[in-house]
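pasting for ref
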Amino acid sequence: MKGAAPLETGAPGRSLGFHLTSAESVTRAIFARAVGRPMNIRATELSLLALVCENDGIGPAQVASGLGVSRPRVSQCLDFLHHRQLLERHPSSSDGRGQHLHATAAGRSLVNEACRRLTQAEAAALQCFSKAERTLMVELLARLTASVV
């Protein structure tokens, strides 16, 4: 609750994982409010579509690996995005079972609009940080993710 005195967390409150989990719930709420509900898309689906936009022709296995998501979950997301005509699947000419994924113009437009909305919503929610602090936070989290993955 905004403006309320923070609760004491004890030892867990000194843990990076505790604060990352708390921050994740905040960012999920921001995403749901700004992008998820109004655009009818989940974060994983948007991440997958953005990955396809940036890596035209990528295959589902590469998407699963890049996002750290199971292949069955990727398949579900692909079905959803294909049904909404946000991406196309083309069979691989060298592997009969393989696919190449391509974002449609509508898919690229959705990613651009979602990113615009998300950037705006995050900036509003993170006003307590300077631009330099926000940039540093993103850099540090990216470095943490890269060192673990």
